[in-house]
Structures are given as C-alpha cells and as structure tokens.
Amino acid sequence: MEIAGFVALACGLIIGLGAVGACIGIGIMGGKFIEASARQPELMNALQTKMFLLAGLIDAAFIIGTGIALWFATANPFKG
C-alpha cells in the first residue's frame, strides 16, 4: 500500500474516532446535566451555562481534528 493509502486511512480514523468520542462525551455530559438539574432545579441556569461551554469545547476538539485530517488529505506533507 502506498503512503497516500495510509494517509487516507489515517484521515478516516481521525474523523471517525473524533466523532465517536465527541458524541459519547456530549451524551454523558447531557445525561449528567439532566440528572443534576433534577436533583437541584435551582442550579439549572448555572449548570446550563457550564454545559454549553463544555459542549463547545468538545465540539472544538473534534473540529480541530477534522481540520487536521482534511489538511493531510489535501496537502499531503508525506508525499514525494
């Protein structure tokens, strides 16, 4: 297999595993938010702010990984 094939495989793994990790992380965080707001409804506003901040950070990590993978796919630094 050529280097371009390995780069394509690596890009798929970066995007795929990043998406799975982000989905699992946001799912766990959303479940914990619902659980915490059911226990103490008076803290719902403060928890919601923190939840959205963390959701943005989790998504940002996935989008950075996707950007790096697309950079490798289009401007392959390992070629020739």
Measured as a percent range, the helix fraction is over 70%
Spans of 5+ residues with little confidence (pLDDT < 50)? Answer: none
**Rg of Cα set:** 18 Å
Q: How large is the count of helical segments?
A: 2
What order do the helices and strands follow? Answer: HH
Average pLDDT figure: 90
- Beta strand %: under 5%
**How would you characterize the largest beta sheet?**
none
How many strand segments?
A: 0
What is the molecular shape? elongated
**Structure classification:** mainly alpha
Distance between the termini: 15 Å
Q: Which characteristics define this entry?
A:
80 residues, mainly alpha
Please describe what this structure looks like.
- The model has no long low-confidence stretch (mean pLDDT 90).
- It is elongated and about 60 Å long.
- The chain has a domain of 50 residues.
- Helix content is 85%, strand content 0%.
- It is an all-alpha fold.
- Helix 1 packs antiparallel against helix 2.
- 4% of the residues are buried.
